[in-house]
Amino acid sequence: MTTNITICGGGNAAHTLAGLLSSWEDLSVSMYLPFGNEAEQWQTGIQLNDGITVNTPQKTIHGKPSAICRDPGAAVVDSQLVLLALPAFAHEPILKQIAPHIPPGAWVGALPARGGLDLCFKDVFKDRLAEIVIFGFQTLPWACRIQQYGKEVTILGTKVQVDLTAQPAHMAVTVSARLQELLGISINPIPNFLCLMLADTGQLIHPGIMYGLFHNWDGKPYDKHCLFYQAVDDEIASLLQQMSDEIQSLRSELQKSYPTLDLSAVRPLGEWLKRSYQANIIDGCTLKSSFATNQSYAGLLAPMQKTDAGFIPDFQARYLSEDVPYNLLVTRGVAELANVATPVIDQVLNWAQIHLGREYLVSGLLQGKDLINTRAPQRYGFVDINNFMQDMHYL
Ligand code: NAI
C-alpha cells in the first residue's frame, strides 16, 4: 500500500528529504511550497532532472516527488506523514495553513523541532491535536546543501544518532522506527518534548559563542573572517559551562518536583559533545579543547558579513534569530515558571535582544512586547509550572 507523504519547505533539508523519500516505490511525496516562487522553481527543476538527485559520500540516490503544490489542501489532504523541513519561525505560519486540511490519524512533525514545537502545535490545532500524532527531531540528521535548485542536493555529513520525541509519548518508538527505516539513519526515541527542549545544546553553543565573540565588539570591522567553534577560548568555555550548569540546575529542580519525569537525555554540554562527536574530538580533556580539536568543527566560520572595510558580525544570522526566540528563550521561560535563576543565560539574552532589535526580557521577566514572536510558555499564557507540566502532558 502506498504511503502519502507531504514535505513542507523548499530549502536544503526539503531537497534531501524529497530525493530520499520519493526514491521509495511505495511512497508518494507531495511538496508544499507556498513561499515565493519556490513551487515554480521546483516544477522546472524536477522536470529537467526527472526528480531530485541526492549525493551522499557513499552513493547517489534519485527520486521524483509526485506533486508540487501551492494549495495547502491539495498538499496534505491524503497525507499520513507530514514533515516540516523549515526554520522554526516558519513552523507557525505553515501549520496554520495546513492544519484545517490534515486528516485525522496523520503524523505531523518537524526536523529540527527547536524548543516549544509542541506549544506551537497545541496553539494552532487546539482540540484537534488529539486526532493526530506530533513529533520532533532534536536536530536535522544531515549537513546538506543544494547544488542546483529543484534538481540536486549534497549530503556533507550524517549525524551518528538523532533523538526524536512524540506526543502521545508512547508513539515515539513507532515513529522513530518507521522514519529510521525510511531515512536510513539511527533515531533514538526520547520521552517528551520538554526533554527535547532542554537537551538542545544549540541553544547554548550558538548564542553563547556569539556573545563570547562579539559582546565587546567596538563597531570596527575585523580584518579577517573569525572562526566560530575553534574561537572558543577559556572565557567562552567558562561561559558555556555556566549556561550548561544553569540548565542542569533546572533539570534537577524539575526532577525533584516531579520524580516520575524522565529528563535523563538532558546532558551537560561536555558529555553531549563527547557522545555526539566521539572520535572526532582529538583532545576531550576540557570544554575548550573539545571545541578546538573537534574535527567536525574545523574551519567553520562565525556569521559575519563582508563589507568594503572588512568583516562585521551578522546579528540577524540564525545562531541568534532562530536560537534565541525558538530555543534559549523557551528554556528560560520554563526556568521562570519553575523559579530557577539563570543569571548567565539572562546576560546572554539581554545582550542578544539588543542586537536582534527585540524586547523579550524586561526587568528580569519574560514580558517584553516581542514575546509574541517566540515560543516561550509565557507567550501562550502559562504562569504556573504545575499547569504547564500537566497541560503539556510531560508528566
Ligand atoms: P533553508 O534556508 O535552505 O530553507 C528554508 C525554507 O523554509 C525555504 O526554502 C522556504 O521553503 C521556507 N521558508 C523560509 N521562510 C519562510 C517563510 N517566511 N514562510 C514560509 N516558509 C518559509 O533551510 P535548511 O537548510 O533547509 O534548514 C532547515 C532547518 O534545518 C533550519 O532550522 C536550519 O537551521 C536547520 N539545519 C540545517 C542544516 C543544513 O545543513 N542545511 C544543518 C542543521 C540544521
Overview of the structural elements:
- The protein has helices at 12-22, 38-49, 72-76, 91-98, 117-125, 171-183, 193-199, 202-214, 234-257, 269-277, 287-292, 318-321, 324-337, 343-356, 385-391, and strands spanning 3-8, 27-32, 52-55, 60-63, 67-69, 81-84, 107-110, 133-137, 142-148, 152-158, 162-167, 187-189, 304-307, 310-313, 361-362, 365-366.
- By secondary structure, the chain is α/β, with parallel strands linked by helices.
- It has 2 domains: 3-190, Rossmann fold; 198-391, Orthogonal Bundle (N-(1-d-carboxylethyl)-l-norvaline Dehydrogenase, domain 2).
- Strands 5-2-1-6-7-8-11-12 form an 8-stranded mixed beta sheet, sandwiched between helices. It has a 4-stranded mixed beta sheet with strand order 4-3-10-9. Strands 13-14 form a two-stranded antiparallel sheet.
- Strand 1 (3-8), helix 1 (12-22) and strand 2 form a beta-alpha-beta unit.
- Helix 4 packs parallel to helix 5 and helix 8 (202-214) runs antiparallel to helix 9.
- The radius of gyration is 21 Å and the shape is globular.
- The protein starts with a strand and ends with a helix.
- Bound molecules: 1,4-dihydronicotinamide adenine dinucleotide.
